[in-house]
Specification:
The structure holds two protein chains of two kinds. Chain A is mainly alpha-helical. Among the domains of chain A are: 97 residues, no CATH class; 234 residues, Cytochrome c oxidase-like, subunit I domain (Cytochrome C Oxidase, Chain A), CATH 1.20.210. Chain A has 17 helices and six strands. In chain A, helix 8 runs antiparallel to helix 9 and helix 16 packs antiparallel against helix 17. Chain A starts with 10 loop residues before the first helix and ends in a 61-residue tail after the last strand. Chain B is elongated, with a radius of gyration of 39 Å. By secondary structure, chain B is an alpha+beta fold. The mean pLDDT of chain B is 91. Chain B has three domains: 105 residues, no CATH class; 179 residues, Cupredoxins -  blue copper proteins (Immunoglobulin-like), CATH 2.60.40; 138 residues, OmpA-like domain (60s Ribosomal Protein L30, Chain: A, 2-Layer Sandwich), CATH 3.30.1330.60. The chains are: A mainly alpha, B alpha+beta. Chains A and B meet through helix 6, strand 3, helix 11, helix 12 and helix 13 of A and helix 1, helix 2, helix 3, helix 4 and strand 6 of B.
């Protein structure tokens, strides 16, 4: 079999011969004369149906939102860290939301503070860490790593992006409402979110917020159906499920979670809209507000929380699983070792995904639900620690006796593991309802989820971007700048979020505009300043990334070797030119799993290489 | 200006970043990619080692620096009976997670440092190890099981509602935008019914239902005062959006949900004064509240428990502060005695009062006492004018001689007095103002005096001791030109003729 392709040939040529020899002929060229899908500017760059272009669209849109969301956090961090300082200089940008007092000092309006907090959460959770992360890498890697020409439905895939874009446009428009954007927290609990009398952001701002997220859910569902279908039906010859890279497993399970949980969010929104517009009482009961007793009776605000968190909790795994997949892949490639415990990794993803559906009420221990019910949610929640711990141990074991190549990508992957440990462990406190009595809705929670799903997911995303940038643009990002970006971000992120644990233990509640009203919360000025400065510095390090990213698109070092990381997976057997349909001729046939690094004295063996006569297949 | 500066900074950073990028790429070209990669591996591996050391040091130092905020440690001890259990659980969890944290972070960064790629190094092919994987699945599972069991044990005990025959004090906290309203049950120990439709801004902010007699003695203080070592059940409600009743020092938190009262049962174990004394032991609290004013009280002297809101409820969420005072049982009783029932303070006698035709025990006792005092001094006085006493609470339906329902209370006082002074004789006198026909007024006042006389007789007073006269508008005590004056003139009196 292998007699035409000998070991002495350059890898790329040998791979191409193997693909030609063993690959699957889907008569791609017979159907794709002249490539009608990318015939002009609009079909190439805007309404593109090519998964690689859609991945770029998701990525750059996600980056746009990340910058907006991060800038918002800087503004409210300035308020928290330096409440005495004048913010009048922000007046040209924020307009009436900076209230100028008689002596000329500018103060951030309370309403807008809460609007910023709300928007920051919504944007980061949905637009950046769901669409920007999963949207980018699922789109890019699912077809490439599975040996498919494109997604199962390129049209739905394109629509998925444009629904996301529409969602973003609506959300962006809501920032400019005279009553301000929605300001009731990203969880949008009624009655606050249902009654314009309760908060001015709950008027038009809330309407646009909901509308935007409904379109967003459409986007997620279109994408998710596509990812699942592609993974199930479009794996190339030989690519059995157990030969799939962990990235694909992560994206696949993520899509399933999304498909099962996001519709529930829409149902919650629908009922909320009915309460707002048509006078129903799903979530409202016995409310006196604005000098008026409302007619609503019999509704339960807690019902909304159940529906919201039925999505909301799986959502955090929708965010973190793709990052985990990316990190598993990146760690393995750059430590030149197979991922440790591949099957355990897959099973733990499945276990986490399954458990993610039966733990939602751990967000609601103190919400007035029957304390007895919490018993079950505590048990299931803390069980999640087990598969999570297995993953951490496996990542560490992957590094053990490896041959680690340090670059921006592997650094961020290692940083991810550190963050996931730090943030995951505090989850053990919060998941235990007895401790949650004190810690619920304090800065301890803010520290926990920012580290474990905010920063960690970002680290996974960065690891992915640095690693697969060549597959997106045919060039490399500057690695030195990438490393500076990593070290600055690692230290900066810990500097921001680590101190918040102490704030939380001291009992300081989150979502406070000012801490002056309470003796117990008032004496942390120094720490709050430290955190704010940390946030500004960490943001500055992200500018390095952004400049590096855009500079490298056009001016980065060009790719000359199509497999620069010496990886085994299929995306590195495609030509540097990144053509539509991915492979110019036949589709590659897969002969082995994705992690043959350092096997039998060879640095790596690609997935298209057949199992040798004396070789034993591993998985 | 600042905006310009910020933009300028970003521009400068951009230029620097691009230049650094160019330089490093040039250096790579000159020195060769492999050599550069190796140097970078060495450098970053060292950074890894340095980072984990500094990270752990920072963790230890900051933990030491902020040790006072660890739950249950030093001045951060809880002030409730269940708080200690939670603080202990926190410490146990901190121990296990701390251990795992140190081990995993050290291994992660140390392996990253140790297994850097260098010339001639190679990776070992280790795909999995079932034994090892079972070990590190089982150990976390066992630890988790332990934490779950101790956690749930504490949880179910803390969250249990009061038992049927337990003795406890029930108070109510209602959240609204943006403050807490407190309600105590008064003498009967029972909080009255509420209905949000009855809310009236200013006079009845909680919608208390005055038809429920349990509401009548409820009082609404502006601070939460509780007796130490007594079980308290806080009934938590909301008037508008979600709030959260949060007492950080007592390890207590519970959402306030409109339409669905929630509760939290706890026992305060330290009075405010005791907690202050404890704080006074720590140097951190032996500093003046105002660092610029050495005369200001020490931090510990100024300490107070506080009630906060811990569920986003709108723009003023951060400001829902109330003082909490834990006092001894005696102090509590004394404080309670100074509180007036909301109904008595703001509702009694207004249009919202459903009991206008009825006097309460307390009112009867108090008014009877006043009546008797006045009577005694009239009896003791020599002056003829002092012998005339006006009924304060006897009144008639407009234009008629029918007594209003509450009139009989004061007449009963008189009955009791007449029984006490069994020889006392009195004259009952009716007066009107000067509106209307003088003859009619005369008749009306006579009739009214007669009605009073008849009532006294019906209560067993001998008619021979009573006379009744109507004087119409002939004896005004005030000007008939003003409404107030005319009101003074419409009156019923009695005169002590002899004792």
């Amino acid at each position: 079999m292998a007699n035409i392709a000998t070991q002495s040939q350059p890898e790329a040529i040998r791979e191409d011969m193997l693909i030609e020899e063993l690959g699957f002929d889907d008569h791609f060229h017979d159907h794709h004369h002249g490539d009608k899908y990318q015939s002009n500017f609009i079909t190439t760059y805007i309404f593109s149906q090519d998964h690689k272009m859609i991945a770029k669209q998701f990525l750059i849109t996600g980056m746009f939102w990340a910058v907006i969301g991060a800038l918002m956090s800087l503004v409210f961090r300035l308020q928290l860290g330096f409440p005495e300082e004048s913010l009048a200089w922000l007046k040209p940008v924020l307009g009436k939301w900076i209230e100028i007092s008689a002596d000329g000092t500018g103060v951030l309006s309370q309403d807008f503070y809460y609007a910023l907090v709300t928007m920051h959460g919504t944007i980061l959770v949905f637009f950046v860490l769901t669409a920007g992360l999963s949207g980018t890498f699922s789109n890019l890697l699912i077809p490439l790593q599975l040996g498919a020409r494109d997604m199962a439905s390129p049209l739905l895939n394109m629509m998925s992006y444009w629904f996301f874009f529409l969602a973003g446009a609506i959300m962006f428009a809501s920032l400019f409402l005279s009553t301000g954007p929605f300001s009731g927290g990203w969880v949008a609990y009624p009655p606050l979110s249902a009654l314009p009398q309760a908060s001015q952001g709950s008027g038009a701002g809330m309407t646009l917020w909901t509308l935007s997220l409904v379109f967003f859910v459409v986007s997620v569902l279109l994408g998710g159906i596509n990812y699942i279908t592609t993974v199930l039906n479009m794996r190339t010859k030989g690519m059995s499920m157990w030969r799939m890279p962990l990235t694909i497993w992560a994206f696949f399970i993520t899509a399933i979670i999304g498909l099962l949980s996001f519709p529930v969010l829409v149902s919650a929104f629908l009922l909320l809209m009915l309460d707002r517009g048509l006078g129903t009482s799903f979530f409202l009961s016995e409310i006196y507000i604005g000098g008026q007793a409302l007619d609503h009776v019999g509704g339960s605000p807690i019902l909304f929380q159940h529906l919201f968190w039925f999505l909301g909790h799986p959502e955090v795994y929708i965010i973190i699983l793709p990052a985990m997949g990316i990190v598993s892949e990146v760690l393995s490639v750059h430590s030149r070792k197979p991922i440790f415990g591949y099957k355990a990794m897959v099973y733990s993803i499945m276990a986490i995904a399954f458990l993610s559906f039966i733990v939602w009420a751990h967000h609601m221990f103190m919400s007035g639900v029957n304390p007895f019910i919490s018993n079950f949610f505590v048990i299931f929640t803390l069980i999640i620690a087990v598969p999570s711990a297995v993953k951490v141990f496996n990542w560490i074991a992957t590094l053990y006796k490896g041959n680690i190549r340090f670059n921006a990508s592997s650094l961020f992957a290692i940083g991810f593991v550190s963050m996931f440990i730090s943030g995951g462990l505090t989850g053990i406190f919060l998941g235990n309802s007895a401790l949650d009595i004190q810690l619920h809705d304090t800065y301890f929670v803010v520290a926990h989820f920012h580290i474990v799903m905010g920063v960690a997911a970002f680290f996974g995303m960065f690891a992915g971007i640095y690693n697969w940038f060549p597959k997106l643009y045919g060039r490399f990002m500057n690695d030195t700048l990438g490393k500076i970006h990593f070290w600055g971000t690692l230290v900066g992120a810990y500097a921001i979020f680590w101190p918040m644990h102490y704030l939380g233990m001291a009992g300081v509640p989150r979502r406070y505009y000012s801490f002056d009203a309470f003796q117990a919360f008032a004496h942390f000025d120094g720490m709050n300043q430290f955190i704010t400065i940390g946030a500004i510095v960490t943001f500055a390090f992200q500018i390095i990334f952004i400049v590096n990213f855009f500079y490298s698109i056009w001016k980065g070092k060009e790719m000359t070797d199509r497999n620069p990381w010496k990886a085994t997976t299929l995306e590195w057997t495609t030509p540097i030119e990144r053509i539509h349909g991915n492979w110019p001729g036949k589709l590659p046939a897969v002969q082995r799993w994705a992690y043959d690094y350092g096997k039998d004295g060879k640095d790596f063996i690609t997935q298209v290489e057949p199992i040798g006569p004396d070789e034993k297949e591993v998985h | 200006m600042t905006v310009l500066l910020v933009l300028l900074c970003i521009g400068l950073i951009t230029i620097i970043v691009v230049q650094v990028g160019k330089v490093t790429e040039l250096a790579t070209k000159i020195r060769g990619e492999e050599e550069m990669q190796e140097a970078s591996n060495r450098r970053n591996a060292n950074y890894m080692l340095a980072f984990v050391i500094l990270f752990l040091l920072a963790t230890i130092i900051s933990s030491y620096y902020y040790k006072n905020y660890f739950l249950g440690y030093g001045p951060h001890e809880s002030a409730s009976a269940h708080g200690g259990t939670l603080d202990y659980l926190f410490a146990v969890t901190l121990f296990f997670t701390g251990l795992v944290f140190v081990i995993t972070q050290v291994l992660l960064f140390y392996y990253a440092f140790k297994y850097k790629a260098q010339r001639g190094t190679k990776a070992s092919f280790i795909a999995h190890d079932n034994k090892l994987e079972i070990v590190w699945t089982v150990i976390p599972a066992v630890v988790m099981a332990f934490l779950v069991i101790s956690g749930l044990d504490a949880w179910n005990e803390v969250m249990a509602d009061v038992g049927e025959d337990e003795e406890y004090l029930e108070v109510e906290a209602t959240g609204y935008q943006f403050a807490w309203a407190l309600r105590y049950p008064g003498e009967d120990g029972v909080l009255g019914r509420k209905d949000y439709k009855l809310i009236k801004q200013g006079s009845n902010d909680l919608g208390m239902d005055w038809n429920d007699e349990a509401s009548l003695d409820d009082f609404l203080p502006n601070e939460l005062v509780l007796p130490v070592n007594k079980k308290v059940r806080v009934r938590i409600t909301s008037r508008d959006v979600l709030h959260n009743f949060y007492l950080p020092h007592f390890r207590l938190k519970m959402d306030a949900v409109p339409g669905m009262p929630t509760y939290f049962v706890f026992t305060p174990t330290k009075t405010t004064e005791e907690y202050r004394q404890e704080l006074s032991q720590y140097p951190e609290y032996q500093v003046p509240v105002d660092p610029n004013d050495p005369e200001s009280p020490m931090l510990w002297e100024d300490f107070n428990y506080e009630l906060a809101c811990a569920e986003l409820c709108g723009r003023g969420h951060w400001s829902m502060q109330k003082l909490v005072r834990i006092v001894s049982e005696d102090e509590y009783e004394a404080w309670k005695a100074t509180q007036t029932a909301h109904y008595m303070q703001l509702i009694r006698g207004t249009e919202d009062d459903p009991y206008t035709d009825k006097w309460f025990e307390s009112e009867i006792t108090e008014r009877k006492e006043n009546f008797n005092t006045k009577l005694e001094s009239a009896i003791g006085s020599e002056e003829a004018t002092d012998k005339v006493l006006q009924f304060e609470y006897v009144s008639f339906e407009t234009g008629s001689a029918d007594l209003t329902p509450t009139s009989k209370y004061e007449l009963d006082f008189l009955v009791d007095a007449l029984n006490k002074y069994s020889n006392m004789r009195i004259e009952l006198a009716g007066h009107t103002d000067n509106t209307g026909n003088a003859d009619a007024n005369m008749t009306l006042s006579q009739n009214r005096a007669n009605v009073v006389l008849n009532y006294l007789v019906s209560q067993g007073i001998d008619e021979s001791r009573l006379t009744a006269n109507g004087y119409g508008d002939t004896r005004p005590v005030s000007s008939n030109d003003t409404e107030e004056g005319r009101e003074d003139n419409r009156r019923t009196e009695f005169r002590i003729l002899s004792v």
